[in-house]
Amino acid sequence: MIENLPPCPKCSCEYTYEMNALVVCPECGHEWVPAEGGDTEGDGGAGERVVKDAVGNVLNDGDTVTVVKALKVKGSPSGIKAGTKVRNIRLIDGVDGHDIDCRIEGFGAMQLKSSVVKKA
Q1: What rounded mean pLDDT belongs to the chain?
Q2: What is the CATH number of domain 64-119?
Q3: Nearest to 84 by CA among 103, 97, 58
Q4: What is the pLDDT of residues 16-34, one digit of tens each?
């Protein structure tokens, strides 16, 4: 249990409370995991999430990536072949590990996992 709970990073409310492993703000509803060992604002902590590709390269918004293995796509008889280039990716906090939002030519908009792509 954390003795001195930090104020909400979104609205600066001081009436935050602990719920399981999260700290919750009652005013705006924001939930976050508190920083261990004190509050370190300057290190880029919770706001900066690093997304790496299948070989460990750091990915950024706007990068071009290549799919490293064939992917099945629901509703498509062929799927996405290994070696398909995907341009202008966007990093998101997706569901089930899908952290890349992109548009693939011939398929349209979809989300990919960073573990199945490598930086081109």
Answers
A1: 83
A2: 2.30.30.40
A3: 103
A4: 888 877 888 888 888 888 7
86, 64 Cβ separation under 8 angstroms? yes
Cβ neighbour number for residue 96 with a 10 Å cutoff = 7
What percent of the chain shows pLDDT beyond 70?
A: 86
pTM: 0.59
Q: What is the CATH number of domain 1-39?
A: 2.20.25.10
**Phi and psi angles of residue 58, each rounded to the nearest 5 degrees, phi first:** -75, 130
Show me where the domains of the chain are located. 1-39, 64-119
Quick check: 116 and 84 in contact, CB under 8 A?
no
Is the pLDDT score of 45 beyond 80? Answer: no
